[in-house]
Design goal:
The structure is a single chain. This protein is of the alpha+beta class and 426 residues long. The chain has two domains: 180 residues, DNA polymerase, domain 1 (Orthogonal Bundle), CATH 1.10.150.130; 180 residues, Intergrase catalytic core (hpI Integrase, Chain A, Orthogonal Bundle), CATH 1.10.443. Helices cover 48% and strands 9% of the residues. Strand 5 and strand 6 form a beta hairpin. Helix 1 crosses helix 2, helix 3 crosses helix 5 and helix 7 packs across helix 11.
């Protein structure tokens, strides 16, 4: 099964589709589709047909677009063909690898099986609501439903821009799928370490594996994401050795799925480092230079290099070793992301760092993101603030001496004064 490139045949442009033995046709069948006046239109249809072939949604008896005539209305495009075309022509060139992988999973596993070949113009608000109900019947979590609706909403927005449909039926679905329960569950699942537990964990890792220890330091004392820590190169680090130079990490990239990609927010930032972190990096740099001289190979620019000098260490291995280190150190089981949470909670609730500073260190889009995630501290983390209510304070309202305050005596006071003194009070 395959599809040929766009070529011209007579007055029209088109392509050839070969249906192989995989679909049960013996001998293979070839179908020619030459009906478009421009190569651009033929290439667009070819992408749709290629996407449908990947999911075995096209047979030799079908029209490539599910319509008998190429002069169809734009809204009559089948959903499955449009979704896969949008994935290959827009999502893959413009979005990150992890985002494309998530969108592809949502489209292939949920959207295409439900909407199938239904035309875009026939997908209305009720159909989207029925789709949400279908997902709930399958006991899918609200957060997962919310994630599934994101590519649906985005692709239908593009369809509106292309004048294929008048409105987006999947817009404003937040009132149907609430994330409040998921956010509460996420806060409960987030188990950051306090400063004492973090110190115990780092002390143990320093004795076991210096490279693992440095990775934990970058998260627990600098707040870097795992991909940002693995994507660090020595040229991104300023240790403050030169006169007038600060101590910071320039975060410009991340290592995700064996490739260097932009950061999560697509923005670069500078992360301040403590003197202790600088000492850790200097010590690790000396170790790397000594090992390279022993092995007689070139110096690697990767800070946390893996088995191959030009690539960072494995993410799965890093989390697995971290759980083992937590058990040995006697601290709660945490992931690498929890070390980043630990940095934020320690800075906010133990060191009283400004919220804006912590938000910039973490690389959040805005302070609102930091407040939403870390606005609920770890239970029992600040009992000293509650103890402030037990401390005696100075009463701000002063009680005045009424004898020094001029006042107008009442009738009863005047009568009593006259009986005792014999003089009318003023």
């Amino acid at each position: 099964m395959g599809i040929g490139s766009v070529r011209r045949k007579g007055r029209y442009w088109g392509f050839t589709v070969r249906f192989g033995k995989r679909d049960g046709y013996d001998p293979p069948i070839e179908k020619n589709y030459f009906r478009w006046s421009t190569p651009e239109e033929a290439e667009r249809v070819r992408n749709i047909v290629k996407a449908r072939l990947e999911l075995n949604l096209l047979t030799p008896t079908d029209d490539p677009l599910g319509e008998p005539s190429p002069k169809r209305t734009m809204g009559a495009v089948p959903f499955d063909a449009y979704a896969l075309e949008w994935l290959t022509t827009y999502a893959e060139p413009n979005l990150k690898t992890t985002t494309v992988r998530t969108y592809r999973s949502c489209i292939v596993n949920h959207l295409v099986p439900y909407f199938g070949g239904r035309h875009l113009s026939r997908i209305d608000r009720r159909k989207v609501m029925a789709f949400i109900g279908h997902l709930r019947d399958e006991e899918i979590h609200d957060k997962t439903i919310y994630n599934i609706l994101i590519p649906l909403r985005r692709m239908l927005n593009h369809a509106v821009d292309a004048e294929m449909i008048p409105t987006n039926p999947a817009a404003r679905t937040g009132e149907w799928v609430s994330l409040k329960r998921w956010q509460a569950e996420r806060r409960e699942a987030m188990t950051p370490l306090n400063s004492e537990e973090l110190t115990r964990l780092l002390a143990l890792s320093a004795r076991d594996d210096p490279q693992q220890h440095l990775a934990y330091v970058l998260a627990g004392k600098c707040g870097l994401r795992m991909g940002e820590a693995l994507g660090l190169k020595w040229g991104d680090i300023a240790l403050g050795d030169d006169v007038g130079q600060g101590r910071y990490i320039h975060v410009v990239r991340a290592w995700v799925e064996r490739a260097y990609v932009p950061t999560k927010t697509y923005e670069q930032r500078y992360v301040d480092m403590s003197r202790g972190v600088c000492d850790e990096l200097r010590a690790w740099d000396r170790r790397c230079v000594e090992r390279i001289l022993r092995e007689g190979r070139e110096l690697s620019e990767v800070v946390l290099e893996g088995r191959r000098p030009d690539r960072p260490m494995d993410q799965t291995y890093l989390n697995r070793v971290l759980k083992r280190a937590c058990r040995r150190a006697g601290v709660p089981q945490v992931t690498y992301q929890n070390l980043r949470h630990s940095y934020a909670t320690i800075m906010l609730y133990e060191k009283d760092a400004p919220l804006q500073y912590v938000s910039e260190q973490l690389g959040h889009k805005s302070v609102d993101v930091t407040t939403r995630i870390y606005g609920h501290p770890r239970p029992g983390s600040r009992p000293d603030l509650a103890d402030l209510m037990d401390e005696p304070g100075q009463i701000s309202v002063q009680i005045r001496n009424t004898s020094e305050v001029p006042h107008r005596p009442s009738r009863e006071i005047k009568e009593l004064w006259r009986k005792r003194v014999g003089v009318e009070p003023t």
